[in-house]
Amino acid sequence: MNHIGLLLLRVSFSVMMLTHGYPKLMKLVEGKMSFLDPIGIGEVPSLILAVIGELICPVLVIVGYKTKYSALPVIATMTVATFVVHAGDALAKKELALLYLFGFIAIALLGGGKHSIDRS
To answer: CA of 15: how far to CAs of 10, 62, 83, 102, in Å?
Structure first.
């Protein structure tokens, strides 16, 4: 039964994250490169990293490919969202980023379970 819980955790958090990553991918594809630069590396690299953290890696987490490692870029992205982008905001404003952060930390610690490509 624990493996069903891991599957539910992986798929639910990742599918919800895709709703944030897909619009960023569309910005990238359409050449609309204006984006926040929260860590000072430039707008385009920041957008590319956000697409990796919010779209590519969640897809890998859904299928359970290198789940523990695939969750790490998502954790990094949500750490920046929580503590840099929303640093001065009230808890209610940064709550969603925190929920994703803790969810993907749990995924990174627990792995994909037996219902994953890696069966870890």
So the answer is: 8, 8, 23, 16
Report pLDDT for 120.
Answer: 65
pLDDT of the residue at 119:
79
More confident residue, 63 or 118: 63
Q: Which residues contact 71 (CB under 8 A, 6 or more apart)?
A: 57, 61, 104, 105, 107, 108
Q: Hey, where are the domains in the chain?
A: 2-110
